[in-house]
Design a protein that fits this description.
Blueprint (H helix, E strand, L loop, with lengths): L9 H24 L7 H27 L7 H24 L7 H29 L1
Helix pairs in contact: 1-2, 1-4
Length: about 140
């Protein structure tokens, strides 16, 4: 019996998650810039929710794709390296955001926009450019 093809290809999940994550980052930046007037904690949490939902979709699919490309004996090391890079980036951003004066949510918005923008750029590059050129 053959394997069933996924209903939604993994690449579409990755790109959709990256777009959703980046849209949450843009929303967070716009909130920090005061585009929508008074910023409430609820608005910040909604932007954070949108971004994190997209990131959750994207990361799970990316990890699954990445671990399928290495030998099973290296999957644990690959997972550990991925976690280290993920937590290391979070540490650097937290250190940077915490070290500046806070008068608004702008610093958080810039950090989230930077992170989600880089993840979207990486996803587009890997899925649309490198993967298409190889196959």
């Amino acid at each position: 019996m053959g394997r069933l093809a996924p209903i939604v290809p993994v690449d579409q999940i990755i790109l959709g998650g990256a777009l959703l994550s980046a849209s949450g980052g843009v929303l967070q930046l716009l909130l920090g810039l005061g585009v929508f007037g008074t910023v409430t904690p609820l608005l910040v949490l909604i932007a954070f929710l949108v971004s994190n939902f997209g990131t959750g979709l994207m990361l799970a699919a990316c990890y699954a794709q990445a671990f399928n490309t290495v030998a099973p004996s290296y999957a644990g090391a690959a997972s550990a390296l991925s976690g280290f890079l993920h937590m290391g980036w979070a540490f650097l951003l937290t250190l940077g955001v915490a070290s500046v004066a806070h008068t608004s949510s702008l610093q958080f918005g810039i950090a989230q926009f930077l992170t989600t923008g880089l993840s979207l750029t990486t996803a587009l590059l890997l899925v649309l450019v490198l993967k298409k050129s190889r196959g």
